[in-house]
Amino acid sequence: MTVKDITNLINSPTPEDIVLITKAYDMAEEAHRGVLRKSGEPYFTHVYETAKIIAELKMDPPTICAGLLHDSIEDGVLTEEKIKKEFGDEILFLVQGVTKLGKLKYRGAERHIESLRKLFVASAQDIRVIIIKLCDRLHNMRTLQYVRPDKQKRIALETLEIFAPLAYRLSIRKISRELEDLSFPYVYPKEYENVKELMKLKNEETLPRLERFMKSVKIALVEGGLTNFKTDYRQKGLYSLSKKIIKKGGDIENIYDILALRIFTDSVTDCYKALGIIHGKWRPLPGRIKDYIAMPKTNGYQSLHTTVFTGDGSIVEVQIRTHDMHKQAEYGIASHLSYSDIKNNESKEMGWFSQFLPKSLSFFFKTQTPDQKTPTWVKDLAEESYKACNGEETLDDLKTDFFQQRIFTFTPKGDTVDLPIGSTPIDFAYAIHSDIGNHISSVMVNNKIASLHTELKNGDQVEIITKKNAKPNRKWLDYAKTTMAKRFIKAALNINTEEIKP
């Protein structure tokens, strides 16, 4: 565990960067000296590994320093004044934002939601806070076996329901995937063992075929004039596979992306060229061609996906993307906040999220510095967590509105409206504007008249027809999925938010 192991992970550190990180390393090591974790390891191991994960994401030196120091204040070994004096306001703020809660008067859900509120507020002021927290959580999950059994499931469930989806929303798939698979055996042990065994059997059957197919693909691409590319394959995460098995009615034979061939190119043009070469030699499975380059996923993911018959009885998914797209897929927003790009950055890829959330910002954003911009949806997430007083209600709202799987829907002009699965035209209307939602008269879905309680599907085109004298009624509360839509409906009906729970 050396400073060099960390600094070697970041891009072209300056001598000043190395000095700064070394100082944080030395101070953290001194602060935690003699303290052991439940595993018997020195406590310094945890902050070191947290900082190392942050460095693997190619984050800037202040963020790495904050990772090293993030538990120092809580443990009472360093004061805020000391950190400010040695490292300045920026690193102090990051440390404060990530510091675990002390002795709260809350219990159960109230304590939990207050913790999340503080995390979201700090992240709204500087997105790096949430990235440090995710790295902190990842290392804690890697060592969860040393925690008491009753705590294991609680921590794993929180990770599965909040932190893994949050990493996915930020498109940091490298972290979200591992958080899911580390949580899975603690939350759903029987399902985990079943899926693990299925995966083992499936891999024994398909891996040799995939490797043969990959060699054939390489030859075909070169013969087609494409020489500058790389290939590998990825294995689907166990938790992700379990969800897909449920979606497919328990039939693993209808899941073709357990192992997927991946092709990386230098340009978008080469991606489509590779797709053409593959389709020219292997017949694609109808309905399985997905162009996420032209139409990225909600978290910014881009790639071409196709599923082809290999000719030896196998069906294989092929994913084609540029090297930059792969970096975005693995590191997400962290790839835009890395090292030299930390200043004056607001992730354009995350702009989609702001379209269906309240636009007003609360008092607690006033301290945000102009050079540390944060995606609007994270600010709105912080504000949203303060809307309700009831802890369990707020947590349910956050899970529904922010952390569930989502769908793309479209306006007649082709603008994208992103919504939680299960949303209706009412949610769609309020996502565009409260005035449109409050005056819905009728709805067209895919150019056909539809009811207000129609469950929208991915790719639906929705047209809201309004009238001045149209207004919400109480039934709309049963039809609406999102917290925002329900809040506007209640406001229009003059219903107290305590009277009807979402």
Describe the protein's architecture and organization.
Mean pLDDT is 78; it is low at 101-111, 339-373 and 497-502. The protein has 21 helices and ten strands. It is globular and about 70 Å long. The chain folds into three domains: 3-172, Hypothetical protein af1432 (Orthogonal Bundle); 189-329, Beta Polymerase, domain 2; 406-492, Roll (Ubiquitin-like (UB roll)), CATH 3.10.20.30. Helix 2 (15-31) runs parallel beside helix 4 (61-69) and helix 9 packs antiparallel against helix 10 (173-187). A hairpin with a 5-residue loop joins strand 6 (406-410) and strand 7. It has helices at 3-7, 15-31, 44-56, 61-69, 80-87, 89-98, 108-125, 128-142, 149-169, 173-187, 189-223, 238-247, 268-281, 323-331, 333-336, 376-384, 391-403, 425-432, 434-438, 475-479, 483-492, and strands at residues 229-235, 259-265, 290-291, 304-309, 315-322, 406-410, 416-420, 440-445, 448-450, 460-466. It starts with a helix and ends in a 10-residue tail after the last helix. By secondary structure, it is of the alpha+beta class. Strands 1-2-5-4-3 form a five-stranded mixed beta sheet. It has a five-stranded mixed beta sheet with strand order 7-6-10-8-9. Helix content is 50%, strand content 11%.
